[in-house]
Design brief:
Layout lengths: L1 H4 L35 E4 L1 H6 L10 E4 L19 E4 L4 E3 H7 L9 E5 L1 H9 E4 L10 E3 L3 H7 L5 E2 L8 E2 L1 H11 L4 E4 L4 E7 L4 E6 L5 E9 L2 E9 L6 E11 L2 E8 L1 E3 L13 E3 L9 E12 L1
Parallel strand pairs: 10-12, 14-17
Antiparallel strand pairs: 1-2, 1-6, 3-4, 3-5, 6-7, 8-9, 11-19, 12-13, 13-14, 14-18, 15-16, 15-19
This protein binds zinc ion (4 copies).
Length: 305
C-alpha cells in the first residue's frame, strides 16, 4: 500500500492541495489495528494485494490504511475515478471525461487517450469502501467509484434536530422519534392530505410541523426580505425519497388570496437562508395586518414516485 499512498499509481505526483476535501469512508475488518482514523481507511481484497505487490499471502481480505484516499480521484476534476482510466506516456492519469475534454496531459502536455492505466483500473474494481454513514446504521460496502452514488441514495444520512439549542443528530427515523419524545409540544401537528390552518406571526422565522401518523418533520420557513415575507416548506429527510411530497400554501387577508404549490425539498439541517422566490410564497408585509399576523392554510400531500 505504500506505493499507492506515495502517489505512484494514483496522481502521478500531481498536487492535490487545491482540491475540496471529500469524505471517504472505511471498511474496517475484524483484524483491524486499534486506533487508526476510520474515515481514512480503504480495504482491498487479496487479489489487489497481489496485483500491486503488497507481498502478503493470506486467504482472507486484507485491511490497508491509505493515507490519502483522494488519490483514487481524478486529479483534474476530483471526481472518483471509474474505468476506463487513461494515462499519458509519462504516467500521469486522468479520468475518461477529462481525457476527452483535454486531449493532453495537464501536467506535462503529452497527448493522452491512447494508453489505458490498467493497474489503477484493477485497484478501483477491488477497493471497497464503507458508507460514511456507518455510525448511523448503514452497513453498505461498495466500490470506491460508486461511493458518491450510494451517498445520494443512502437512507442513513444524518439529519439534525431543527432546534439550534439541541444537538441531536441521527437518521431521519430516529430524529422523528427524538422529536416526538423531547419536543412534542414545540411542533404543530398535521395529517397528510388534510388542510392545516395556522396563524403565522410576521417575525416567526420557522415553525416545525410534525405529521401525526408517521412523525415526519417539516419546516415551515418564514423569512423577511425586501418585498415581503417568503414562506416555504421543507422536509427533513434523506436526499432521495421514494415518495413525492407536494405542499400547497394559501394566504388570505382583506380579500386578497395568494397561493403557492411546490415539491417539498428535502433538507438534513435547518438553515435560515432566504428561499428562492420560485420556491416560496411571497406575502407582502401589509397582508400580515395591524397585529403582524397572517392566516395561512397548508396542505402536504404524499404520493409514491
Ligand atoms: Zn476528471
Ligand atoms: Zn503527463
Ligand atoms: Zn449508506
Ligand atoms: Zn432535539
Amino acid at each position: 500500500m505504500e506505493k499507492i499512498s506515495s502517489g505512484k499509481l494514483g496522481d502521478g505526483g500531481q498536487s492535490s492541495s487545491k482540491r475540496p476535501k471529500r469524505s471517504t469512508s472505511a471498511n474496517e475488518q475484524t483484524n483491524e489495528p486499534q486506533g487508526h482514523e476510520e474515515r481514512d481507511d480503504i480495504c482491498c481484497a487479496r487479489s489487489v494485494a497481489q496485483q500491486v505487490g503488497a507481498g502478503r499471502s493470506t486467504n482472507g481480505p486484507v485491511s490497508w490504511i491509505v493515507s490519502d484516499p483522494e488519490l483514487l480521484d481524478c486529479p483534474i476534476c476530483f471526481e472518483p475515478l471509474t474505468s476506463p482510466v487513461f494515462q499519458c506516456e509519462d504516467g500521469h492519469i486522468v479520468c475518461s471525461l477529462c481525457c476527452t475534454r483535454l486531449g493532453r496531459c495537464s501536467t506535462c502536455l503529452l497527448p493522452v487517450g491512447n494508453i489505458r492505466c490498467r493497474a489503477i483500473e484493477i485497484v478501483l474494481e477491488s477497493v471497497k469502501a464503507r458508507c460514511p454513514n456507518t455510525k448511523y446504521g448503514c452497513n453498505e460496502t461498495m466500490s470506491y467509484s460508486l461511493q458518491k452514488v450510494h451517498e445520494q441514495t443512502c437512507q442513513h444520512v444524518p439529519c439534525s434536530c431543527p432546534f439550534s439549542h439541541c444537538n441531536f443528530i441521527s437518521t431521519s427515523t430516529k430524529l422523528y422519534q427524538h422529536f416526538s419524545e423531547k419536543h412534542q409540544n414545540s411542533a404543530v401537528h398535521f395529517m397528510y392530505n388534510r388542510v392545516l390552518n395556522i396563524v403565522l406571526n410576521v417575525d416567526n422565522k420557522f415553525i416545525v410541523l410534525q405529521e401525526e401518523k408517521y412523525g415526519d418533520l417539516f419546516i415551515l420557513k418564514n423569512m423577511i426580505e425586501r418585498r415581503g415575507n417568503v414562506i416555504s416548506v421543507t422536509y427533513i429527510a434523506p436526499p432521495a425519497r421514494k415518495e413525492s411530497l407536494v405542499y400547497d400554501l394559501m394566504a388570505r387577508s382583506g380579500g386578497i388570496t395568494r397561493r403557492f404549490q411546490s415539491l417539498a425539498k428535502t433538507i438534513q439541517k435547518r438553515d435560515d437562508n432566504i428561499p428562492a422566490l420560485e420556491e416560496s410564497l411571497l406575502v407582502p408585509a401589509d397582508m400580515f395586518g395591524y397585529y403582524g399576523q397572517l392566516k395561512l392554510q397548508i396542505r402536504i400531500s404524499k404520493s409514491r414516485n
